[in-house]
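worker-03 picked up job from queue 'complexes'. Input manifest follows; two sequence lines, order preserved.
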Amino acid sequence: MKREGSPWSGVGVVCSKELADHLTSVRMRILEVLIVLAAIGATYVASEQLRASVAESPFAFLQLFTTAQQPLPSFVSFLTFFVPLVAIGLGFDAINGEHNRGTLSRVLAQPIYRDALIIGKFLAAMATMAIVLVGLWLVTTGLGILFLGLPPSGASVARGLCFLVATLFYAGIWVAAAMLCSILFRQATTSALAALGLWLLFVVMWPIAVQFVAQAVHPAHLGGQAQAQAQQLSMMLERISPNTLYGEAVTALLHPTVRTLGPVFFYQIQGAMLGNPLPLGQSLVIVWPQLTSLVAGTIGLFVIMYLVFQRREIRA
Amino acid sequence: MSEAALHTQGLSKRYGRTVAVDDLDLEVHRGEIFGLLGPNGSGKTTTILMLLGLTEPSGGELSIVGLDPRRQPLSVKRRVGYLPDTVGFYDDLSGRENLAYTAALLGMRRELAREPIEAALERVGLPEAAGSRVRTYSRGMRQRLGLAELLLKNPEVAILDEPTLGLDPEAADWFLETVRSLRDEGMTLLLSSHLLHQVQSVCDRVGLFANGRMLLTGTLDELAGRVLDAAWRIDLETQVSDGRELDVVAALRAVPGVREVQSDADGGCTVHAHQDIRGPLVRAVLEAGADVTGIALHRPQLDEIYRRYFGASTHEA
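worker-03 finished. Artifact:
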């Protein structure tokens, strides 16, 4: 049975309203202030450290993002930490909030499909994320120019843009996950807790659990072969976590000298000129699986969320 | 079919093994106010959501404004208005902005929507409050804003779910008065409620709904005749000379249409009748040699019909 009309009608209206809500909400203001302060701090500390060696590296600008100095972590570590938080903040009450306010049935009684509501909300969250990230990236770059007294090279800018795209899809996974929670749980607090729990699971428990499983499957006392297998297994398992995928993608994108992400056998580096930067294309080849996995994760979670929402009763 | 604004046949909805709506036949004519009455949880809201295409029916046929909400949900939602039972708005937006959002969802251009929005706000008496955030609105104001949204849409059929719930009597009266004026302008209205005494004053026809089934439909008087049999109660005050009370009671009993007569010591009589027979009753009293000093007629009340019909199972009415 074919439905009349387009599922897209109303997407623009919903999206622009949600975007306006996000950009004016107190919740986002707080998160933005936090993230900007953290970014400025990280950039400043990094530039202090880099100033001495700025002439030596052609990619000093990228190191701005990755250099850490105790006690402050690097800009990238900040993002790995903050992006899921902001994403969850954007999505955790997307649907149950409408439901609890009693606006869901009223809005869906207007001539739009449910598709428009869910797509509009997702796009608005992604647009908010993109605005925040681009703003942040520009601020950092500007501060870098100010602190280092050096304009970024074309290659640095290109790598920076790829880094932004990777971050956006990393955020997309968490936005979709948070929105899924907002559909599954009627209470906003439950949904927020579930999303944050999932995030904690991947940040804290997952790496530990992975080590544990890998050691159990390939015990270390069986020798070097088993150890290598254990490491390979734990790496595979760790890549289920979006944090690992994002971390690896960013590592290769922001460190042009990184040639591989896994363990390396000797024959693989024969003839390589270590320490020389790779062109962007080659760096992208290294992390292509990570990047596509991030995109696929976003799309996959979005599809699950979409299906669950379509089948949900408006009123339970 | 063309005459009916809304028509269902054998409509049913099951959630797993529980039956929310069971084999529902319903017909609402154009230009009438139809009251869908029943206790909480009787399947009224589920029926409404099916009519709007927001819930998929498990079986049966339905059409509203001549369309099938399963196949043409957008056209249906364009021509049918809905005021949910706990109508909600975005708290951080003003009343006017909330209406502007609805207008945009309806596909109205921003400049063109401005005038209808103001007109709707004016009609529901909210033009001053429309600039402040909905967060500050009372329940009654929210309900008014919901009505303004309905006016903005100007639908052929409006479905109001528990519209007077939580309103103070004055606000409820105002609301029902507005509903009546909408009917007079040609709108068809479907009211769902369990607050019977409020709704009976505006409904042209009502349907009694319980456990997903429509038990009775018709005008109030028809229902009263069918359910209560003797729905009319007439209180008579009479002045009788001593010792003749029984003659009066006997005379009253002889009047056609009387079902039961109860008398008390002061000459007061309560007559239960099948219809309004005040004239014959007075004549009978006079002929029996007594005087009538007072008479009062009690029309059949929906509550009474309802309670009588559902017996102890009614909780809310």
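worker-03 released lock.
Chain A touches chain B through 27 residues (CB under 8 Å).
Chain A has a mean pLDDT of 89.
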